From TrEMBL:
Gene that this sequence comes from: lrp
UniProt-recorded name of the protein: Leucine-rich protein
Matches recorded under InterPro entries: CdaR-like_regulators, Homeodomain-like_sf, PucR_C-HTH_dom, PucR_C-HTH_sf
Domain PucR C-terminal helix-turn-helix: 235-292
Family annotation (PANTHER family): CARBOHYDRATE DIACID REGULATOR (PTHR33744)
Gene3D superfamilies to which the protein is assigned, alphabetical: PucR C-terminal helix-turn-helix domain
The organism of origin for this protein: Oceanobacillus oncorhynchi
Length: 299
C-alpha cells in the first residue's frame, strides 16, 4: 500500500520523525516498511481499522526505560555544548536496525552487552532501531567487530541486523545535526547496499556521484571507462582491485583467477584508457566513474 495513496484517502496522515519517541494518542499508528505513520482516529471507521490492519502492522511505543547514563546522552544531544573533549573523550554513534518483532529489546541489550567493556548505552528511536554509543567508558572488547556481532545475532538468534558506523566526535556542538545526518546516510545506504555493516567512509563516494547531474555522470563514465562501459567483467575486476587496496594477490584471490590473468586485464585497461589505476589518484577517479556508470544503468 503506497504512502501517497494513503495520504489521499486520509489527509491527516503524518510520518513520525525518527528522533521523536512519543506519539499523539489521538492518532492510530502503523508501521509501513521502515516508516511509522499516524492517522487521526476521527478519520477512521471500524471498517478502516480492520482494512488497514490487514496490510499494515500496528505500532506501539514500548521502548526500554533509559538508564541514568542514557538520559545524560539524551540531554547532551539537546544541550550541544561547544567544548573540545580531545581524543580521551571522543565517542561515536552506531546506528542499527533490526527486523521488526524479531527480538525483545531487553534481550537485544543483554546480548550486545556481552561484546562491550563497561555499561552499554543505547538510544532507541523506535522498537527496531536506534543508536549504540561507543565512548571511553563503554567500547567493544578487543578483537570484536560489528561484523562478528551481526554474524552472532543472525546465526544464534536468527535476528537480521544492520549497522551503520558513524565518525568519532570530540565535540557536542553539532551533535543533533550529526545524528540526523548519520540516520539519513544509514537509511539510504541500507536500501542500496546488501551488507550487515557499513562505515560512513564507504558511502561518501556514492553520495558525491548522486550530486552530479545525469550529463555529468555520463561524461565521467564515458571519458574514463571508454570501451569498458559495458564490459561488466572488466569493471568488476577493476572495482575489486581498488577495493583490495591495489593489491594484486588479494584481488586475484577474491576473484578466483590467476595473478597473470588479473595483470592482463589491468594492462588492457591501461592500454585502452591511458589511466594507470595503480596510482591512487587515478584509481579514485576510476572508482567514481564506475559508480557513475552503475548509477546511470540503474536509473
Amino acid at each position: 500500500m503506497h504512502l501517497q495513496r494513503l495520504k489521499k484517502l486520509y489527509p491527516s496522515l503524518t510520518e513520525l520523525p525518527k528522533n521523536q519517541k512519543e506519539v499523539n494518542p489521538d492518532f492510530k499508528w502503523y508501521q509501513l516498511e521502515n516508516t511509522v505513520i499516524g492517522i487521526d482516529n476521527k478519520e477512521l471507521t471500524d471498517r478502516d481499522k480492520i482494512l488497514l490492519g490487514t496490510f499494515l502492522t500496528s505500532y506501539h511505543v514500548q521502548l526500554p526505560i533509559q538508564t541514568p547514563k542514557e538520559k545524560q546522552w539524551e540531554a547532551r544531544i539537546h544541550r550541544q555544548k561547544d567544548a573540545n573533549l580531545g581524543k580521551a573523550g571522543r565517542y561515536r554513534y552506531i546506528f542499527f536496525r533490526i527486523e521488526q518483532g524479531q527480538i525483545d529489546t531487553n534481550v537485544f541489550r543483554k546480548t550486545l552487552q556481552e561484546f562491550f567493556s563497561g555499561d552499554l548505552s543505547i538510544l532507541w528511536n523506535h522498537t527496531n532501531e536506534g543508536f549504540i554509543i561507543e565512548e571511553p567508558a563503554s567500547f567493544l572488547e578487543e578483537g570484536i567487530t560489528y561484523h562478528q556481532i551481526a554474524d552472532t545475532l543472525t546465526g544464534e538468534l536468527y535476528v537480521k541486523i544492520m549497522f551503520f558506523i558513524g565518525p568519532y566526535l570530540e565535540n557536542d556542538k553539532d551533535l543533533a545535526d550529526c545524528i540526523e545526518q548519520i540516520t539519513t546516510m544509514a537509511e539510504r545506504s541500507f536500501r542500496k547496499m546488501d551488507t550487515a555493516v557499513i562505515d560512513y567512509t564507504e558511502v561518501y563516494p556514492s553520495f558525491l556521484i548522486e550530486i552530479l547531474s545525469h550529463k555529468q555522470r555520463q561524461q565521467l563514465s564515458e571519458w574514463v571507462l571508454k570501451e569498458f562501459l559495458t564490459d561488466l567483467e572488466a569493471l568488476e575486476t577493476i572495482r575489486m582491485f581498488i577495493q583490495c587496496n591495489l593489491n594484486v594477490s588479494e584481488t586475484a584471490k577474491n576473484l578466483y583467477i590467476h595473478r597473470n590473468s588479473l595483470q592482463y586485464r589491468l594492462d588492457k585497461f591501461y592500454e585502452s584508457t591511458g589511466i594507470d589505476i595503480k596510482q591512487f589518484d587515478n584509481a579514485f577517479t576510476v572508482y567514481l566513474a564506475i559508480l557513475a556508470n552503475m548509477h546511470n544503468i540503474q536509473s
